[in-house]
Amino acid sequence: MFVLKERKYNWLDMWRMPFVCAPFCTVAVTLQKFSTALANVFQVIVVAKFLDEAIASLAEKSFSRETFLWLGLTLLVTGWKRISFLVGAVFTQRAIIQANQQVAWEAAKKRDRLEYASLEDPATEELINRITGKLEQTLWMNLQWFLNLFAINIPRIAGVLIIMGGCVWWLPLLVLALTMPVFFFSLKNGKRVYQAVGEAALYERRHKYLFSILTGRESVEERSLFGYTGKVNEKWHGQYEEARKLNLRSQMLYVGNILRGTAINSVLAVIVVLAMIPLTVRGQLTAGIFISLVTSLYDLIELMGKNTSRAFNQVAEAQEFMKDFTAFAALPERHWNSGTPDGAGSGAAAFQTLELRHVTFRYPGTEAVILKDLSLTLQQGGHYAVVGENGAGKSTLIKLMLGFYRDYEGEILYNGREMRTFSQEEWFRNFSCVFQDFARYYLSVEENICLGTGDLGPEEEETEKQRAFRRRRMEEAAGLLDLTGAVSGLKDGYRTRLGKLDEDSVDLSGGQWQRVAMARAMMNDAALLILDEPTAALDPVSESRLYEEFGRISRGRTTVFISHRLGSTRLSDTIFVLKDGRVKEAGSHEELMASGGVYAQMYETQQSWYQAEGRDRAERSAE
């Protein structure tokens, strides 16, 4: 089983990765490749023996048993060379399927463990895209070219050179002297090809995205209304041209390397053949070995000039890939504690309090302080709201509470225990959240909602009892959020696919998508429920209905509202008003209104907006 570790990955991992994932299949295909190489070497001897026996038999006008024996061996070797590819393809495919599953799973888990700051870094995103973009194809190519080089080409070349050396000691030295520069250039060009392909991939992703804007369903309305096709097309063409030029450059490097190798080895073949002719005339080489070596030599032109150069080129590309893989494995992870320390309560303990004490925080690599000596306390069963102007630190506060960032000053205490002493699993178990930028998964309604229950490992299967319990909870969550009617009206009910991926899929309104996201959060039984702008996509009537049902929705949970609509904050027991990274005010709606501070001013300003909007609507209706 492959496990991603922080270490230096190198060209040996071209073979080692598939071997760890599928040892039997990887060893089988390695033996198939190596036996093919031996068959090619053995063929030189067999053909030489057959030709010598056949020439002798023709001279004597009678065919001996040895002639038929060597003919049979020649046919046997040739037959194995033809079928071995099919045998190897079966084992290769099975090895790569398992390798792709395991390596992709480890890469996904690594990405989940990354520091949140890394996930927001464009350079890290580019690195991850290079690793995972064509992972299965990369693993397949790496294994194939590794085996082609080390299990076929090198053994085959070495075998033929040994046979040559047994006949004339200086022939293999001549061959090596002329071919070493080809391999050197192949390795050098392989690095350049990988770098060019990596640069092109960035432009390819950009031009494919712009092409989706020009042709996709999601942008069709604005595309028609604003008529921006010409401008976007110009940008698309620019990115496309950059990608084309870089891909052409990589192809030219690759082809140039092949042509160089072929030319050098063609000259080499002529030199070696000319050197063997007088040796054959003098009797140092038999006619059979001369013909066999000449035939194999011209095979070696293809092997050393093209195949081996390509293999060296690919190994060099793979080495660059392994450098990226090494960098990926070394990306900083969230440094959670490995488990519950002695005497400490488990993360699954019943929630009592969450307290932030004198918390100060700035984002990694920046100097601006976002939260400054912030303190607040949440009690079990309480309903809280966090309000403030844009940039006051509301979203940052939520990221800290959820454990996305842990390099803060001060303390964040769950039931009196510091967050940094929890394991990641323990901490995340305490929270469920509806994010403002919630995800819209192009999956079925059921899958969209039930993703909130957590994940099964790749080898785990859900039992019938677990499935029935999950469906019951899903229907309860949908009912609480007034989704039952909308789902029952869909063609396949909860099995209806959402989004715009398939022709028979159904897209939802913004408010319905938000309800699905809230239902997903409700499927998680965490004690603390955080709602970041939970009604932003709802109309006023739906928003009011949701607030009326809020008591049932939040039953048994501690809730934290992040909202710009201050009307929703009246449901809260305590409202925290953030300003300049601090808690400027705290209290109930009535208390804060009575104090006439920042909250009261914000509320009255919003109320005047709503009243003015209401008057405008009334006037338009009267007209």
Q: Gist?
A:
The protein has 623 residues and is of the alpha/beta class.
How does this structure look, described?
It is a single chain. This protein is of the alpha/beta class. It has three domains: 13-329, ABC transporter type 1, transmembrane domain (ABC transporter transmembrane region fold, Up-down Bundle), CATH 1.20.1560.10; 336-430 and 526-623, Rossmann fold (3-Layer(aba) Sandwich); 441-454 and 463-524, no CATH class. 63% of the residues lie in helices and 9% in strands. The strands form two sheets. A six-stranded mixed β-sheet has the order 6-7-8-3-9-10, with helices on both faces. The protein starts with 12 loop residues before the first helix and ends with a helix. Mean pLDDT is 81; it is low at 341-347.
List the helices and strands and how they pair.
Blueprint: H1 13-21, H2 23-60, H3 65-113, H4 116-119, H5 122-132, H6 135-167, H7 171-215, H8 220-226, H9 229-281, H10 287-329, E1 353-361, E2 371-379, E3 383-388, H11 394-401, E4 409-414, E5 417-418, H12 424-428, E6 431-434, H13 445-450, H14 464-480, H15 484-488, H16 510-523, E7 528-532, H17 540-548, H18 550-553, E8 558-562, E9 574-579, E10 582-587, H19 589-595, H20 598-622
Helix pairs in contact: 1-2, 1-3, 1-6, 2-3, 2-6, 2-10, 3-6, 5-10, 6-7, 6-10, 7-9, 7-10, 9-10, 14-16, 19-20
Give the number of helices.
20
Q: Could you spell the SSE succession in H and E letters?
A: HHHHHHHHHHEEEHEEHEHHHHEHHEEEHH
CATH class of the largest domain: Mainly Alpha
Unreliable sequence segments? 341-347
The total of beta strands comes to 10
Cα(first) to Cα(last) distance is 73 Å
Q: State Rg.
A: 35 Å
Q: What is the subunit organization of this protein?
A: single chain
Overall pLDDT, averaged? 81
Helix fraction bin: 55-70%
Going by CATH, the architecture of the largest domain would be: Up-down Bundle
